[in-house]
């Protein structure tokens, strides 16, 4: 299986936004209720990539983009206080027909290299169940991150 991994250009950010929407759908989220989400997400991707705090990598096979990986450099208290740069793996998506061919591993490895080149000392990720084994095989360890969906929680005023 031949594929090419490289940094995404601005021309590919719309495809990446499409992939991000497909990824959300596979995880059970319906973004169709938010008209214009794709354009807004593409604009956000352009702004954050241009500013240098986010990078996207794409995989090409047979002349088409078949996968993407997004990373961000976190802006938190550890950077100004201790000089520690941390990164976050924002999204990994491989089209179903191209899964299990090493593309995801190559994308994540390239992303790790990109963050390392920027003096990043730790990378956080919240992989889906299907990709947990991949991240673990690359050295990622379980962390203590939790999530609360405030849309499903009554306000303290409602109790």
Task: Furnish the topology, listing elements before pairings.
Elements: E1 4-7, H1 13-26, H2 37-51, E2 54-61, E3 64-73, H3 78-82, E4 85-94, H4 103-117, E5 120-125, H5 132-137
Parallel strand pairs: 4-5
Antiparallel strand pairs: 1-2, 2-3, 3-4
Task: Characterise this structure.
The chain is of the alpha+beta class. It has a single domain (4-152), classed as 3-Layer(aba) Sandwich (Aminopeptidase). Helix content is 35%, strand content 24%. The protein contains five helices and five strands, in the order E-H-H-E-E-H-E-H-E-H. The chain has a five-stranded mixed sheet with strand order 1-2-3-4-5, with helices on both faces. Strand 2 (54-61) and strand 3 form a beta hairpin. It starts with a strand and ends in a 22-residue tail after the last helix. The model has no long low-confidence stretch (mean pLDDT 90).
């Amino acid at each position: 299986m031949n594929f090419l991994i490289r940094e995404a250009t601005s021309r590919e950010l719309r495809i990446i936004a499409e992939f991000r929407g497909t990824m959300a759908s596979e995880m059970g989220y319906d973004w169709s209720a938010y008209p214009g989400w794709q354009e807004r997400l593409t604009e956000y991707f352009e702004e954050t990539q241009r500013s240098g705090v986010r990078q996207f990598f794409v995989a090409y096979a047979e002349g088409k983009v078949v996968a993407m990986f997004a990373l961000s450099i976190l802006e938190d208290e550890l950077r100004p206080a201790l000089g520690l740069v941390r990164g976050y793996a924002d999204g990994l998506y491989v089209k179903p027909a191209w899964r299990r061919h090493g593309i995801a591993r190559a994308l994540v490895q390239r992303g790790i290299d990109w963050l390392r080149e920027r003096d990043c000392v730790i990378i956080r990720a919240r992989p889906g169940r299907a990709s947990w084994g991949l991240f673990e095989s690359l050295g990622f360890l379980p962390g203590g991150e939790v999530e609360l969906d405030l849309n499903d929680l009554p306000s303290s005023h409602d109790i």
